[in-house]
Amino acid sequence: MIPVTRTFLPPIEEYYLQLQRIWDNQWLTNRGELVIELEEKLTDYLKLEEARMIMMNNGTIPLQIALKILANGGEVITTPFSYVATTAAIVWENCTPVFVDIHPEFLTIDETKIEAAITNKTTCILATHVFGNPCNVEVIESIAKKHNLKVIYDAAHCFGVTYKGKSIFEYGDISTCSFHATKLFHAGEGGALFTKDIELFHKCFYSHAFGHLGPIDYYGVGINAKLSELQAAMGLALLPKMEFILQNRKKIVEYYLNNLNFEKVQKLHIAEKTIWNYSYFPVIFKTEAILLEAQNILNQNNIFPRRYFYPSLNKIEYTKGKKMPISESISERILCLPLYVGLSYKELKIIVDLINFNA
Predict the structure, then answer these.
(1) How many whole angstroms separate alpha carbon 142 and alpha carbon 183?
(2) What is the DSSP string of 216-275?
(3) Sign of the torsion formed by the C-alpha atoms of 55, 59, 282 and 106
(4) Contact 318, 91 (CB under 8 A)
Protein backbone atom coordinates (compact mmCIF):
# COMPACT_ATOMS: atom_id res chain seq x y z
CA MET A 1 0.00 0.00 0.00
CA ILE A 2 1.13 3.54 -0.78
CA PRO A 3 -0.46 5.93 1.78
CA VAL A 4 -0.51 9.72 1.54
CA THR A 5 2.19 9.83 4.20
CA ARG A 6 4.21 7.54 6.44
CA THR A 7 5.69 8.52 9.78
CA PHE A 8 9.47 8.69 9.78
CA LEU A 9 10.89 6.87 12.79
CA PRO A 10 14.52 7.24 13.90
CA PRO A 11 16.58 4.09 14.51
CA ILE A 12 15.08 2.47 17.57
CA GLU A 13 18.42 2.22 19.35
CA GLU A 14 18.76 6.01 19.16
CA TYR A 15 15.32 6.41 20.69
CA TYR A 16 16.30 3.92 23.42
CA LEU A 17 19.29 6.13 24.32
CA GLN A 18 16.92 9.01 25.00
CA LEU A 19 14.51 6.78 26.90
CA GLN A 20 17.37 5.59 29.12
CA ARG A 21 17.89 9.17 30.24
CA ILE A 22 14.26 9.28 31.38
CA TRP A 23 14.67 6.08 33.38
CA ASP A 24 17.90 7.43 34.88
CA ASN A 25 16.25 10.73 35.82
CA GLN A 26 12.97 9.18 36.96
CA TRP A 27 11.24 12.29 35.55
CA LEU A 28 8.44 11.87 33.04
CA THR A 29 6.71 15.26 32.80
CA ASN A 30 6.57 18.86 34.14
CA ARG A 31 9.33 20.22 31.89
CA GLY A 32 12.08 17.74 32.51
CA GLU A 33 15.61 17.72 31.14
CA LEU A 34 14.65 16.37 27.70
CA VAL A 35 11.90 18.90 27.04
CA ILE A 36 14.17 21.80 27.93
CA GLU A 37 17.00 20.39 25.81
CA LEU A 38 14.68 19.88 22.83
CA GLU A 39 13.42 23.46 23.07
CA GLU A 40 16.99 24.73 23.07
CA LYS A 41 18.01 22.56 20.10
CA LEU A 42 14.93 23.50 18.09
CA THR A 43 15.56 27.19 18.79
CA ASP A 44 19.03 26.75 17.30
CA TYR A 45 17.88 24.59 14.39
CA LEU A 46 15.11 27.01 13.41
CA LYS A 47 17.49 29.99 13.81
CA LEU A 48 14.97 31.89 15.89
CA GLU A 49 16.16 35.48 16.30
CA GLU A 50 13.51 37.11 18.50
CA ALA A 51 10.77 34.52 18.90
CA ARG A 52 10.79 32.28 21.94
CA MET A 53 9.11 28.89 21.93
CA ILE A 54 7.10 26.80 24.35
CA MET A 55 6.73 23.12 23.51
CA MET A 56 3.27 21.67 24.11
CA ASN A 57 1.57 18.31 24.04
CA ASN A 58 -0.20 18.74 20.68
CA GLY A 59 -0.59 21.26 17.88
CA THR A 60 -4.15 22.39 18.65
CA ILE A 61 -3.73 23.52 22.24
CA PRO A 62 -1.29 26.34 21.32
CA LEU A 63 -4.06 27.75 19.11
CA GLN A 64 -6.53 27.50 21.98
CA ILE A 65 -4.17 29.26 24.38
CA ALA A 66 -3.43 31.97 21.81
CA LEU A 67 -7.14 32.58 21.24
CA LYS A 68 -7.91 32.51 24.95
CA ILE A 69 -5.35 35.25 25.56
CA LEU A 70 -5.69 37.39 22.42
CA ALA A 71 -9.18 36.97 20.99
CA ASN A 72 -11.22 37.78 24.13
CA GLY A 73 -14.35 36.03 22.92
CA GLY A 74 -14.68 38.27 19.86
CA GLU A 75 -14.94 37.74 16.13
CA VAL A 76 -11.88 36.08 14.61
CA ILE A 77 -11.21 36.58 10.92
CA THR A 78 -9.94 33.31 9.52
CA THR A 79 -9.60 31.07 6.49
CA PRO A 80 -12.11 28.43 5.41
CA PHE A 81 -9.29 26.42 3.83
CA SER A 82 -7.41 24.69 6.64
CA TYR A 83 -7.65 21.62 8.83
CA VAL A 84 -10.75 21.70 11.03
CA ALA A 85 -8.62 22.31 14.16
CA THR A 86 -8.14 25.94 13.12
CA THR A 87 -11.85 26.75 13.18
CA ALA A 88 -12.70 24.31 15.96
CA ALA A 89 -10.25 26.09 18.27
CA ILE A 90 -12.01 29.42 17.57
CA VAL A 91 -15.43 27.99 18.40
CA TRP A 92 -14.07 26.03 21.39
CA GLU A 93 -12.78 29.28 22.90
CA ASN A 94 -16.24 30.87 22.55
CA CYS A 95 -15.16 33.12 19.70
CA THR A 96 -16.94 33.59 16.37
CA PRO A 97 -15.16 32.57 13.14
CA VAL A 98 -15.59 35.07 10.31
CA PHE A 99 -14.38 33.57 7.06
CA VAL A 100 -12.50 35.34 4.30
CA ASP A 101 -11.96 33.57 0.97
CA ILE A 102 -8.57 32.43 -0.32
CA HIS A 103 -6.14 33.00 -3.17
CA PRO A 104 -6.81 30.53 -5.99
CA GLU A 105 -3.07 29.87 -6.48
CA PHE A 106 -1.40 30.36 -3.08
CA LEU A 107 -4.43 28.89 -1.19
CA THR A 108 -3.78 31.18 1.79
CA ILE A 109 -6.25 33.76 3.09
CA ASP A 110 -6.84 36.57 0.58
CA GLU A 111 -5.44 39.57 2.43
CA THR A 112 -7.25 41.97 0.09
CA LYS A 113 -10.60 40.79 1.51
CA ILE A 114 -9.76 41.01 5.20
CA GLU A 115 -10.62 44.64 5.87
CA ALA A 116 -14.15 44.25 4.49
CA ALA A 117 -14.78 41.55 7.11
CA ILE A 118 -13.71 43.66 10.10
CA THR A 119 -16.45 44.85 12.49
CA ASN A 120 -16.44 46.46 15.92
CA LYS A 121 -16.49 42.93 17.37
CA THR A 122 -13.32 41.80 15.57
CA THR A 123 -10.44 41.13 17.94
CA CYS A 124 -8.07 38.90 16.02
CA ILE A 125 -6.94 37.49 12.68
CA LEU A 126 -6.12 33.76 12.63
CA ALA A 127 -4.57 32.82 9.29
CA THR A 128 -3.06 29.53 8.14
CA HIS A 129 0.19 29.17 6.20
CA VAL A 130 -1.36 26.48 4.00
CA PHE A 131 0.88 23.48 3.20
CA GLY A 132 3.79 25.56 4.55
CA ASN A 133 3.08 28.38 2.07
CA PRO A 134 3.31 31.76 3.88
CA CYS A 135 0.42 34.19 3.99
CA ASN A 136 1.07 37.78 2.93
CA VAL A 137 2.38 38.62 6.40
CA GLU A 138 3.29 42.24 5.59
CA VAL A 139 -0.21 43.21 4.48
CA ILE A 140 -1.84 41.30 7.34
CA GLU A 141 0.41 43.05 9.85
CA SER A 142 -0.45 46.43 8.33
CA ILE A 143 -4.19 45.72 8.55
CA ALA A 144 -3.85 44.49 12.13
CA LYS A 145 -1.99 47.63 13.21
CA LYS A 146 -4.50 49.90 11.48
CA HIS A 147 -7.44 48.27 13.24
CA ASN A 148 -5.72 47.38 16.53
CA LEU A 149 -6.09 43.63 16.01
CA LYS A 150 -3.95 40.71 17.13
CA VAL A 151 -2.53 38.20 14.64
CA ILE A 152 -2.19 34.45 15.19
CA TYR A 153 -0.69 32.20 12.54
CA ASP A 154 -1.56 28.54 12.33
CA ALA A 155 1.84 27.38 11.08
CA ALA A 156 1.20 23.68 11.68
CA HIS A 157 2.79 22.77 8.33
CA CYS A 158 5.74 25.15 8.58
CA PHE A 159 8.60 23.43 10.35
CA GLY A 160 11.78 24.82 8.79
CA VAL A 161 10.04 27.30 6.47
CA THR A 162 11.70 30.71 6.15
CA TYR A 163 10.34 33.89 4.60
CA LYS A 164 12.66 36.76 3.67
CA GLY A 165 15.48 35.01 5.51
CA LYS A 166 13.60 34.62 8.80
CA SER A 167 11.81 31.69 10.35
CA ILE A 168 8.11 31.89 9.57
CA PHE A 169 7.56 31.53 13.33
CA GLU A 170 8.93 35.08 13.80
CA TYR A 171 5.75 36.56 12.30
CA GLY A 172 2.51 37.48 14.04
CA ASP A 173 1.79 38.08 17.71
CA ILE A 174 1.74 34.29 18.12
CA SER A 175 2.60 31.47 15.71
CA THR A 176 1.90 27.82 16.38
CA CYS A 177 3.23 24.56 14.99
CA SER A 178 2.27 20.89 15.10
CA PHE A 179 4.63 18.02 15.90
CA HIS A 180 2.04 15.36 15.10
CA ALA A 181 3.28 12.01 13.80
CA THR A 182 2.36 12.98 10.21
CA LYS A 183 4.48 16.13 10.23
CA LEU A 184 8.05 16.65 8.94
CA PHE A 185 9.40 16.92 12.46
CA HIS A 186 7.39 15.13 15.11
CA ALA A 187 7.37 13.99 18.71
CA GLY A 188 4.76 11.32 18.05
CA GLU A 189 2.31 13.96 19.19
CA GLY A 190 3.14 17.52 20.16
CA GLY A 191 3.30 21.14 19.13
CA ALA A 192 4.74 24.54 19.97
CA LEU A 193 3.83 28.19 20.47
CA PHE A 194 6.12 31.03 19.36
CA THR A 195 6.05 34.72 20.27
CA LYS A 196 8.47 37.65 20.29
CA ASP A 197 6.61 39.54 23.02
CA ILE A 198 8.20 38.81 26.42
CA GLU A 199 5.06 39.64 28.41
CA LEU A 200 2.93 37.54 26.09
CA PHE A 201 5.45 34.70 26.30
CA HIS A 202 5.21 34.79 30.09
CA LYS A 203 1.40 34.65 29.94
CA CYS A 204 1.42 31.77 27.44
CA PHE A 205 3.99 29.93 29.52
CA TYR A 206 2.00 29.92 32.72
CA SER A 207 -1.21 29.27 30.79
CA HIS A 208 0.22 25.98 29.50
CA ALA A 209 1.04 24.75 33.02
CA PHE A 210 -2.16 25.31 35.03
CA GLY A 211 -1.14 28.91 35.69
CA HIS A 212 1.67 27.90 38.03
CA LEU A 213 4.13 30.47 39.39
CA GLY A 214 5.75 27.86 41.59
CA PRO A 215 4.67 24.62 43.29
CA ILE A 216 1.79 26.32 45.16
CA ASP A 217 1.42 29.82 43.69
CA TYR A 218 -0.31 30.93 40.50
CA TYR A 219 -0.16 33.76 37.99
CA GLY A 220 -3.63 33.06 36.65
CA VAL A 221 -5.87 30.48 35.05
CA GLY A 222 -4.20 27.80 32.95
CA ILE A 223 -4.57 24.32 31.52
CA ASN A 224 -2.32 21.31 31.09
CA ALA A 225 -0.50 21.64 27.76
CA LYS A 226 2.89 20.31 28.83
CA LEU A 227 4.96 18.06 26.60
CA SER A 228 6.12 14.84 28.28
CA GLU A 229 9.68 13.56 28.44
CA LEU A 230 8.61 10.53 26.38
CA GLN A 231 7.50 12.82 23.55
CA ALA A 232 10.66 14.92 23.84
CA ALA A 233 12.73 11.74 23.55
CA MET A 234 11.24 11.08 20.12
CA GLY A 235 11.94 14.66 19.06
CA LEU A 236 15.56 14.49 20.21
CA ALA A 237 16.11 11.21 18.35
CA LEU A 238 14.49 12.58 15.19
CA LEU A 239 16.01 16.06 14.98
CA PRO A 240 19.47 14.91 13.74
CA LYS A 241 17.69 13.21 10.78
CA MET A 242 16.00 16.36 9.50
CA GLU A 243 18.39 17.10 6.63
CA PHE A 244 18.07 13.51 5.43
CA ILE A 245 14.27 13.79 5.62
CA LEU A 246 14.17 17.10 3.76
CA GLN A 247 16.51 15.97 0.99
CA ASN A 248 14.46 12.83 0.39
CA ARG A 249 11.21 14.74 0.27
CA LYS A 250 12.74 17.35 -2.04
CA LYS A 251 13.63 14.63 -4.57
CA ILE A 252 10.04 13.34 -4.53
CA VAL A 253 8.64 16.84 -5.03
CA GLU A 254 11.04 17.43 -7.91
CA TYR A 255 9.90 14.19 -9.54
CA TYR A 256 6.28 15.32 -9.35
CA LEU A 257 7.17 18.76 -10.70
CA ASN A 258 9.15 17.30 -13.60
CA ASN A 259 6.71 14.58 -14.60
CA LEU A 260 3.12 15.56 -13.85
CA ASN A 261 1.15 17.12 -16.70
CA PHE A 262 0.33 20.58 -15.38
CA GLU A 263 -1.94 21.25 -18.30
CA LYS A 264 -4.29 18.78 -16.63
CA VAL A 265 -3.74 19.60 -12.95
CA GLN A 266 -2.77 22.79 -11.11
CA LYS A 267 0.13 22.93 -8.63
CA LEU A 268 0.55 25.02 -5.51
CA HIS A 269 2.33 28.34 -6.10
CA ILE A 270 4.82 29.10 -3.34
CA ALA A 271 5.16 32.71 -2.21
CA GLU A 272 8.28 34.53 -3.40
CA LYS A 273 11.27 34.79 -1.02
CA THR A 274 10.19 31.57 0.69
CA ILE A 275 12.39 28.60 1.48
CA TRP A 276 9.79 25.86 1.50
CA ASN A 277 9.90 22.56 3.42
CA TYR A 278 8.34 20.03 1.00
CA SER A 279 5.62 19.27 3.52
CA TYR A 280 2.80 18.34 1.11
CA PHE A 281 2.26 17.97 -2.60
CA PRO A 282 -1.29 19.01 -3.53
CA VAL A 283 -2.68 19.01 -7.05
CA ILE A 284 -5.92 20.66 -8.13
CA PHE A 285 -8.06 18.95 -10.76
CA LYS A 286 -10.29 20.76 -13.23
CA THR A 287 -13.48 19.32 -11.73
CA GLU A 288 -14.47 17.27 -8.70
CA ALA A 289 -15.70 14.51 -11.00
CA ILE A 290 -12.22 14.17 -12.54
CA LEU A 291 -10.67 14.13 -9.06
CA LEU A 292 -13.01 11.38 -7.88
CA GLU A 293 -12.30 9.29 -10.97
CA ALA A 294 -8.54 9.69 -10.54
CA GLN A 295 -8.76 8.95 -6.80
CA ASN A 296 -10.78 5.80 -7.50
CA ILE A 297 -8.23 4.54 -10.03
CA LEU A 298 -5.36 5.28 -7.65
CA ASN A 299 -7.19 3.42 -4.85
CA GLN A 300 -7.71 0.45 -7.17
CA ASN A 301 -3.92 0.37 -7.52
CA ASN A 302 -3.45 0.44 -3.72
CA ILE A 303 -2.48 4.15 -3.71
CA PHE A 304 -4.26 6.36 -1.19
CA PRO A 305 -3.88 10.13 -1.61
CA ARG A 306 -6.03 12.37 0.61
CA ARG A 307 -8.44 15.24 0.09
CA TYR A 308 -6.80 18.03 2.12
CA PHE A 309 -8.83 20.13 2.97
CA TYR A 310 -12.37 18.95 2.41
CA PRO A 311 -14.95 20.25 2.96
CA SER A 312 -14.38 24.00 3.03
CA LEU A 313 -14.78 24.91 6.71
CA ASN A 314 -17.52 27.47 6.10
CA LYS A 315 -19.74 24.53 5.14
CA ILE A 316 -19.42 22.76 8.50
CA GLU A 317 -22.73 23.00 10.37
CA TYR A 318 -21.45 24.63 13.55
CA THR A 319 -19.58 27.42 11.74
CA LYS A 320 -22.65 28.85 9.95
CA GLY A 321 -20.32 30.45 7.42
CA LYS A 322 -21.23 32.46 4.36
CA LYS A 323 -20.42 31.16 0.90
CA MET A 324 -16.71 31.14 0.04
CA PRO A 325 -16.65 30.41 -3.71
CA ILE A 326 -12.91 29.95 -4.19
CA SER A 327 -12.33 27.87 -1.06
CA GLU A 328 -15.35 25.70 -1.81
CA SER A 329 -14.22 25.14 -5.38
CA ILE A 330 -10.61 24.34 -4.43
CA SER A 331 -11.61 22.03 -1.58
CA GLU A 332 -13.73 19.98 -3.98
CA ARG A 333 -10.89 19.61 -6.50
CA ILE A 334 -7.68 19.26 -4.45
CA LEU A 335 -5.83 16.06 -3.68
CA CYS A 336 -2.58 15.61 -1.76
CA LEU A 337 -0.32 13.01 -3.33
CA PRO A 338 1.86 10.52 -1.43
CA LEU A 339 4.98 12.15 -0.03
CA TYR A 340 7.28 10.49 2.51
CA VAL A 341 10.78 9.16 2.97
CA GLY A 342 11.08 5.76 1.31
CA LEU A 343 8.70 6.39 -1.58
CA SER A 344 10.51 4.90 -4.57
CA TYR A 345 10.83 6.26 -8.11
CA LYS A 346 9.06 3.13 -9.33
CA GLU A 347 6.08 3.94 -7.12
CA LEU A 348 6.21 7.61 -8.12
CA LYS A 349 6.09 6.67 -11.79
CA ILE A 350 2.96 4.61 -11.22
CA ILE A 351 1.29 7.52 -9.38
CA VAL A 352 2.24 10.07 -12.03
CA ASP A 353 1.27 7.87 -14.96
CA LEU A 354 -2.16 7.14 -13.47
CA ILE A 355 -2.84 10.84 -12.85
CA ASN A 356 -1.56 11.98 -16.25
CA PHE A 357 -3.66 9.37 -18.01
CA ASN A 358 -6.85 9.87 -15.96
CA ALA A 359 -6.87 13.62 -15.29
Answers:
(1) 31
(2) S-BSS---B-BPPHHHHHHHHHHGGGHHHHHHHHHHHHHHHHHHS-TTTSEEPPPPTTEE
(3) negative
(4) yes
Long-range contacts for 110-118 (Cβ within 8 Å, ≥24 apart)?
Answer: 110/326, 111/135, 111/136, 111/139, 111/140, 111/143, 112/139, 114/77, 114/140, 114/143, 115/143, 115/147, 117/77, 118/77, 118/143, 118/147, 118/149
- What CATH number does residue 117 fall under? 3.40.640.10
The candidate with the shortest Cα–Cα distance to 109, out of 87, 129, 86, 132, is 129
Give the span between the Cα atoms of 178 and 110, in whole angstroms: 23
**Could you tell me if 170 and 50 are in contact, meaning their C-beta atoms sit under 8 angstroms apart?**
yes
Answer yes or no: do 219 and 349 share one domain. no
Structural domain of 253: 242-358
Edge to edge, the sheet with strand 334-336 lists 266-267, 282-284, 334-336
Other residues' Cβ atoms within 10 Å of the Cβ of residue 281 = 22
**Residue 161 burial class via C-beta count within 10 angstroms: exposed 0-12, middle 13-18, buried 19 and up:** buried
Block means of pLDDT (10 residues each) for the chain, 359 residues, are 97 98 96 97 97 98 98 98 98 98 98 98 98 98 98 98 98 98 97 98 96 83 96 98 98 98 97 98 98 97 97 95 96 98 98 93
Q: What is the pTM of this model?
A: 0.96
CB atoms within 10 A of CB 200: 18
Alpha carbons 89 and 110: distance in angstroms, whole number: 21
On the 0-12 / 13-18 / 19+ scale of CB atoms within 10 A, 173 is buried
- Using alpha carbons, select from 296, 282, 302, 179 the residue that is nearest to residue 232: 179
Query: 262 and 174, same structural domain?
Result: no
Parallel, antiparallel or unpaired: strands 96-99 and 2-3: unpaired
* DSSP conformational letter for 156: T
102 with 185, same domain? yes
pLDDT at 158: 98
